[in-house]
Amino acid sequence: xxxxxxCLNGEVRQIAVAPNETLLDVLRNxxxxxxxxxxxxRGDCGACTILLDGKAVRxxxxxxxxxxxxxxxxxxxxxxxxLTALQKAFVKNNVFQCGFxxxxxxxxxxxxxxxNPQPTESEVREALAGNLCRCTGYEPIVETVLAVAKQAARxxxxxxxxxx
Amino acid sequence: xxxxxxxxxxxxxxxxxxxxxxxRRVSGGAVPxxxxxxxxxxLRDGTAAPGRLVDIKGIKALCGIRLKxxxxxxxxxxxxxxxxxxxxxxxxxxxxxxxxxxxxxxGVRNRxxxxxxxxxxxxxxxxxxxxxxxxxxxxxxxxxxxKTIPAKRWFIGPRQTALPKGGIVTGISIPIAKxxxxxxxxxxxxxxxxxxxxxxxxxxPSGNWQVAYGSVAPTPIRGPQVERVLKGVKKPDxxxxxKAAALAETEVAPITDIRSSxxxxxxxxxxxxxxxxxxxVRRVSGRGPAYGINVLEExxx
Lengths: 164, 301
Fold this sequence. Notes:
The complex is a heterodimer of chains A (about 160) and B (about 300).
Chain A: E1 2-8, E2 11-17, H1 23-30, E3 49-52, E4 55-58, E5 71-73, H2 75-78, H3 85-92, H4 102-115, H5 121-128, H6 139-154, H7 156-163
Parallel strand pairs in A: 1-5
Antiparallel strand pairs in A: 1-2, 3-4, 3-5
Chain B: E1 8-11, H1 15-23, E2 30-33, H2 39-45, E3 52-55, E4 65-68, E5 71-75, H3 80-85, H4 87-92, H5 94-100, H6 106-109, H7 114-120, H8 127-133, E6 137-142, E7 145-150, H9 151-154, E8 155-157, E9 160-161, E10 168-175, E11 180-186, E12 197-203, E13 209-214, E14 221-222, H10 224-230, H11 238-251, H12 262-284, H13 295-300
Helix pairs in contact in B: 10-11, 11-12
């Protein structure tokens, strides 16, 4: 076991981890962070997406011991101060059905909008191509991300909120 | 439990430190860990069971993309996302940008490194064909010193490379020269997928062609017969493109697997080559679409 220190959703956390524990398992089973899901467990489905130093990554393919000193944001952190504009739009448009992919999709889309506030449709599709959804057929997800980006362009304050 | 095997983990602070950690005896052997997108998946499914992981991500000397002695140098820790976004790579190795942009998904590309991609050396490795047409060199360090290995001698078999035991890839370099090209990848669907087949094409202003294929042999391979028939032709006409495509189908050696039948792979290599050649011609003369497109979709429309 080795002690690691991470900044998890803005809070410094310390925990002893074994080298063979994945970040996903440590988050879910030991740190009470349940929004990253285990889907495929091999990096294909995106359900375990988290933001590592602001970048969308697969927590199932990262060992917890690797991320010592790094900053992690999960959906718990994104929505900590109330739903973001993106989340509100997803709710309003009733975008998700079963919701298993939702946390990964929201994080991947949030990372995209933070880097590229006015993405094209193909950029949205590319950013979300690694987040599999078996319910929606993706159309409502893509449409909503584009609509939120468009709305943010009209309302600069709302855009900052989306990026948080 | 997600990962059944047990191993130690050590984070190397320097190349020397990493080589020392890799050399120290451990049951199961020691392996370098960079992005981990292949290695951790293999630890999970039991394909790999090393005794020690040596994390090389903290080694500054293996990070970054820069120009060095007329070469474009990419450190071993460079993730695919950095390659896609780098103005230097876009300028000097745009075919690699096109290939890197087709690799897996954003969430994997943010972590997966190009050096890891060629060390995993699966036949469908997306960076392989581009590195082959560029005549890239793989820089390797061992406890005995450093050496460079040409990409064409790197890939030995599925998951087998010329990396010496206990060695580490430190970077990959590509010679700088005026050129254009294209990378085409056939997938089962629009989202992320491993290649069913892929083709990289490079041409210089004198009409010297380099061609390579992925997913149609035990390793990424060059296409010497197609290169010969195109040699010196700056603008191959439709008949020559057709001839090259027919030759491509005969110089690959695909198998049938879960992603595709051998015959489909063979035929699609011809189709992809016949799209990639005219695209490279348009690009070398300064016309043609920017790099980073899905060649099969854009050129069909």
